[in-house]
Design a protein that fits this description.
Radius of gyration of chain B: 24 Å
Strand content of chain B: under 5%
Largest interface: A-B, 42 and 29 residues
Number of strands of chain A: 21
Order of helices and strands of chain B: HHHHHHHHHHHHHEEHHHHEEHHHHHH
Shape of chain B: globular
Radius of gyration of chain A: 25 Å
Number of strands of chain B: 4
Oligomer: heterodimer
Order of helices and strands of chain A: HEEEHEEEHHHEHEHEEHHEEEEEEEEEEE
Largest sheet of chain B: 2 strands, antiparallel
Helix content of chain B: over 70%
Chain lengths: 372, 553
């Protein structure tokens, strides 16, 4: 499924730089008598050519934020800036951006080619120019020969590519994605993910992507904006949000985590010394961690290593499952239940339920957070 | 968009709000207030009120029962000829309102072909029994269609689940289907109640001594020239009609969606036991009665005096098509052709405004648009008379010349078109609201996102996608324009004649042959109209595969 974007990229020459800035965005809805705050204090910048993902559970305000950028919702407060221009008064049809919708939103009464041509017709391109651009889009998106089909005659993946082609062909300065992969099956989702990333990187279009799927966010994005309850929890690269989560929410939402209650003995140079399983552990910590205050040490399951040992033992295996790539364990310890994940396990030697084990934490991949 | 709103508002204000306001103003003027005292103490008036409510309740119950019977046979029984049954059930929708009434008199009246000729009875059909019979048969298709839709949408998995728990068919019907359909049944009863309340034509033809509010108000205007009393009767008629109509809408909108959800899975298990025969038999019996009535309409038009002198003749049709009736036929067709597209487009525009554009004011606009169906036609007719009998002036300026009466502009045609538009718009509005609500907003947003203006989006995306609904709406509108009688009887002038009021006259004068010929011609015209609408708008593009509703985060 190689995508030829070299020629397609040429069509796109002339797009704006696409520097996006959200300033103090706020959105409230009135539901009956009460006011519901959907988005509050959302502020971040997207560099030209950058791929940013808004990640969060449903109802966290990520879609509302995206729709305010697109102009489908009016912000209650704050501004959207694009290339130094404030977009408050610009209606959606005048904004130099294109959106790929969750439902694809292909016009069901038009052919694939008509769908792709639609935006170009709005730009008043000549018939021959339009036709040329549509044909180019069809070939570069692996849709050659499907131009005269109806959208509903296509597979899910093909519909997705038509939606993408329709958005790309108008040469947007900013590309918006509203959970575009959630309507595809798991296998297709993986390959579409790779396709979207490679096209975006080759064309260098600034992109804003919304999803609740952390794998999508991590595999696609330059940076991820984690949102919860209408607010931003953290902005950072995949590595940052995974290994140095800014809040308990982020640590819990992105990947799986063990939260062990600790009380740091010392905090210096961004590191905290804590006591866990009778051993001293020094791990990186968040800015607001203070010595002596209730905190958590966040340990990812793959950073927990187990060795069978009855004396001294830290816990007992409650449950063990062999998954092939990993073996997963639940361990009962004095500080609560712990999950551990062993990479490349030997099926003959997985630890059976009831085994007494010693627990080792990888301090370099652990992080200390204040218990809020 | 501003133009669309302005035109919609102007038509609705002129055609609906001003006449209704005039009715209310007259009904609550100082001159009218003593009439209420007389009303509650007058034995005659109270009897009229009771007559009206009893008629509404009986028609609501009988009509809904027949509608349910037909829907049940259609969706749950394994019997032959279901398709024919469906078509027969739809005939009353496209036929003029008193085709059935007139045919009933001829077949089942005092000297009826069946009651007297065949059975030798001296049966007096005039009055409550005749009215319930005729109105139930005329209006049951409305209940049938809505129940049919609901029963088709019922998830068969629910029945399968009940079967799984070893419930009998009867028990499933009683404990699963009936409760789920209860809102639909209640809605049907209420809707038919309103229709029966509002009906003017049948009580005039078949009522005899059984007077109802609508016919009493009509008499007050046309016989006694007492518009004050007419306004008072109108208000007394308006209150229950609008209340019931709103109750019905609330009931259906609030409950059905929560009970009938999800994509139906599994398949319906048709009843194959002996029990299907008596149920189907009852439905076919009703169908035979309907057929006998329409056969009478057709045959009656081609015979001298059907049942008395069965000589074949083209006399009646000659009178209708080339004689006295010609004017009425061309006038009616012309005015309906003018009104239908206006009504259809307005309905779509209002639906679009309601569903997409105005969230806060939407329910009000929807309500005002739907008044055309909720308010009895008689009330509108009286309102038009009150509002437009004289020139509408402010100071020395004439805003509007008089639209109603002998000296009206265009011979009253303007008022008739206006009333057609108002009375038939809700049909299109409802189907369009339904279609738009199904259309996911992201489709239109995608268009805006690609740079299309609001008008372009409406023209290139929205309109083509709701075309099937528009088509249905236009057909309904046209049929309603052609067959409506209760408003236009107040608006006809010597210059402008309308078929339905001609039928009314012919029927009342006992010239049944002519009445039948008019009915046949009218029905044929309606069917031609359907064909023309289909031809103009192209065959239906199915609204399939429109992006399904998906939740957003």
């Amino acid at each position: 499924m190689a995508v030829e974007t070299g020629t397609f990229g040429a069509v796109l020459a002339g797009s704006g730089v696409g520097a996006l800035r959200l300033e103090q965005l706020r959105k409230t809805f009135t539901r009956g008598d009460e006011t519901v705050v959907a988005v509050e204090d959302v502020e971040f910048e997207v560099e030209p050519g950058e791929f940013i993902t808004l990640l969060g559970p449903s109802g966290c305000g990520k879609t509302t934020t995206l729709r305010m950028v697109a102009g489908f919702e009016q912000p209650t407060g704050g501004h959207v800036w694009l290339d130094g221009r404030v977009l408050d008064k610009v209606p959606p049809q005048k904004r130099p951006m294109a959106m790929v919708f969750q439902s694809f939103a292909l016009f069901p009464h038009m052919t694939v080619a008509d769908n792709i041509a639609y935006g170009l017709q709005m730009k008043k391109l000549s018939r021959s120019e339009t036709e040329e651009a549509v044909n180019l889009a069809l070939t570069s998106m692996n849709l050659a020969g499907l131009g005269s089909r109806s959208p509903h005659e296509l597979s899910g993946g093909q519909q997705q590519r038509v939606a993408l082609a329709r958005a790309l062909v108008v040469q947007p300065t900013l590309l918006l994605f509203d959970e575009p992969l959630s309507n595809l099956d798991a296998k297709l989702r993986g390959s579409m993910r790779a396709e979207i990333r490679s096209i975006q990187q080759r064309l260098g279009i600034t992109s804003l992507f919304v999803t609740h799927d952390q794998n999508e966010a991590m595999s696609l994005s330059d940076r991820i904006v984690v949102m919860n309850k209408g607010r931003i929890e953290q902005v950072g690269t995949a590595g940052e949000i995974y290994l140095r989560p800014a809040s308990v929410f982020v640590a819990d939402f992105v990947g799986r985590a063990n939260f062990l209650e600790v009380s740091p003995q010392r905090v210096e140079n961004g590191k905290a010394a804590v006591h866990a399983f009778g051993r001293d552990v020094v791990a990186e910590c968040h800015d607001d961690v203070r010595a002596g205050e209730a905190s958590y040490i966040v340990v990812r399951p793959e950073s927990v290593s187990l060795t069978a040992s009855s004396d001294p033992a830290d816990g007992t295996v409650l449950n063990s499952v062999f998954y092939g790539t990993t073996a997963e364990y639940e361990i009962e310890t004095i500080t609560g239940t712990l999950i551990a994940s062993e990479p490349s396990p030997d099926p003959e030697r997985t630890l059976a339920a009831g085994t007494h084990v010693r627990v080792e934490l990888d301090a370099s991949r652990s992080y200390v957070l204040r218990k809020s | 968009m501003i133009v669309a709103v302005a035109i919609s508002v102007a038509v609705v204000v002129l055609g609906s709000l001003i006449p209704l306001a005039m009715v209310l103003k007259t009904a609550f003027s100082s001159e009218a207030l003593p009439r209420y005292g007389e009303f509650v103490t007058s034995r005659t008036d109270l009897t009229i009120l009771r007559n009206t409510l009893v008629l509404g309740a009986l028609v609501g119950a009988c009509g809904t029962a027949i509608g349910f019977l037909f829907a049940f046979v259609q969706t749950r029984l394994d019997v032959p000829f279901k398709r024919i049954l469906h078509v027969i059930a739809l005939v009353p929708i496209v036929s003029p309102p008193f085709a059935i009434a007139t045919a009933t008199i001829v077949l089942y009246g005092r000297s009826g072909i069946i009651t007297n000729g065949l059975l030798g009875l001296e049966y007096d059909i005039y009055g409550l029994d005749g009215l319930v019979f005729v109105l139930s048969l005329s209006f049951f298709p409305v209940a049938y269609l809505s129940l049919l839709g609901m029963m088709r949408a019922l998830d068969p998995a629910l029945e399968e689940a009940a079967m799984d728990m070893s419930a009998s068919r009867w028990r499933i019907f009683r404990t699963v289907q009936l409760p789920l359909l209860a809102p639909g049944l209640a809605g049907g009863v209420l809707l038919l109640f309103v229709e029966a309340l509002a009906d003017l034509a049948n009580p005039l033809v078949l009522g005899g001594d059984y007077t109802v509010l609508a016919s009493r108000a009509y008499l007050a205007v046309t016989g006694e020239f007492d518009t004050t009393s007419a306004a008072v009767y109108s208000v007394i008629l308006l209150a229950p009609a609008v209340a019931m109509f709103m109750a019905q809408r609330y009931w259906l909108s609030g409950k059905v969606r929560t009970t009938v959800t999800g994509k139906p899975t599994g398949s319906v298990h048709l009843i194959r036991g002996w029990a299907r025969w008596p149920i189907a038999g009852a439905a076919f019996l009703v169908a035979v009665v309907i057929l006998s009535l329409y056969a009478t309409v057709i045959i009656g038009g081609f015979t001298e005096v059907f049942g008395v002198n069965n000589t074949l003749t083209l006399r009646h049709f000659r009178e209708v098509l080339f004689g006295q009736g010609q004017e009425a036929v061309t006038d009616t067709a012309l005015l309906a052709v003018i009104a239908t597209p206006i009504a259809g487009l307005l309905g779509v525009v209002i639906a679009w405004l309601v569903v997409r554009q105005l969230r806060a004011t939407a329910s009000w606009l929807d309500f005002i648009g739907t008044l055309g169906i909720a308010v009895p036609g008689t009330v509108y007719g009286i309102g038009y008379v009150l509002a437009y009998r004289t020139d509408l002036t402010i100071g020395p300026f004439t805003l509007l010349p008089n639209l109603v009466g002998g000296t009206a502009v265009f011979g009253g045609a303007l008022a008739i078109v206006l009333s057609y538009v108002i009375r038939s718009m809700p049909a299109g509005q409802r189907t369009a609201v339904g279609a738009l609500a199904q259309l996911h907003p992201s489709i239109e947003q995608a268009s805006a996102d690609l740079g299309a203006s609001q008008a372009t989006t409406f023209r290139r995306i929205t309109l083509p996608l709701i075309r099937p609904a528009l088509l249905t709406g236009l057909c309904y509108s046209f049929a309603r324009c052609m067959t409506t009688v209760s408003t236009v009887v107040f608006l006809i002038t010597p210059e402008t004649k309308i078929i339905t009021s001609q039928i009314l006259n012919a029927s009342n004068n006992g010239r049944y042959g002519v009445a039948f010929a008019y009915c046949t011609v009218l029905t044929v015209l309606v069917l031609i109209g359907f064909g023309a609408i289909r031809l103009l708008l192209g065959s239906t593009a199915a609204l399939n595969r429109v992006a399904s509703k998906t939740s957003t985060g």
